[in-house]
Amino acid sequence: MFTTIISPEALYGRLGSSDLVILDCRHSLTDFALGRRFYDESHIPGAFFAGVEEDLAGPKTGKNGRHPLPDPQSFAHFLRACGVHDATQIVAYDAGADMFAARLWFLCRWIGHDATAVLDGGFAAWNALGFPVSAALPEPGGEGRFTIALRPELVVGADFVLAHLDSDEMHLIDARALERFSGETEPIDPVGGHIPGAKRRWFKDNFEADGRFKSPERLREEFAESGVESKRTVHQCGSGVSSAVNHLAMVHAGLEGSRIYNGSWSEWVSDPVRPVAKGV
Question: Which of 25, 82, 108, 237 is catalytic?
Fold first, then answer.
């Protein structure tokens, strides 16, 4: 069972297995239709498409961020429609060194399906090895059956973050790029800056130059150097998506216990009463 990442070679060796479901999560936050276009052109054989805005997020109210958590039953229904059973190995992939496959991985972990892994290096790594691709739509193998075992302890809300701003009981890590964290620019949300007290670890810092994940040993060293303790760590970003990469990196490194503030910056700034910091 793969529970964090899986190599392209290992996935290739399992293609066609009855206990495998592959999900294509390619997406762009500036072009919501791009992922589907990429999928229709070519994808890993047998892969189903997972729409980040539709399948991996819930309804937006204007106060709950840009990618609210989906309803657990709705997300489970999507997985079952792809043929996922309790014993199914799920593999999620995106373009490579990106955030969207990690989002699906986290949601599966949240509802209790541990046999979920992110394809290391994504579609770019798959193509680089010359592995097969297809434009054919997969044939569903029938409605899957699995039991939701929700883990509410994996997420925290805005009230928790606000109540722990000045407490060492929360080590807040922001996954956004430096210019957004500092408030120098904000291309997506209406306010720039960061939550007071947050440390920054850009989600791309978890990848090597070739788009593969850094080794568990190196990730452990880097998190140790940052001075955060996993059981006190809360990950956040712009809307709860890229924060999943930092959470995945911790779990891959053997550092369990961190949580995600899913509403993240986009929810935080929807209430002007919540404090905002700028600079580094």
Answer: 237
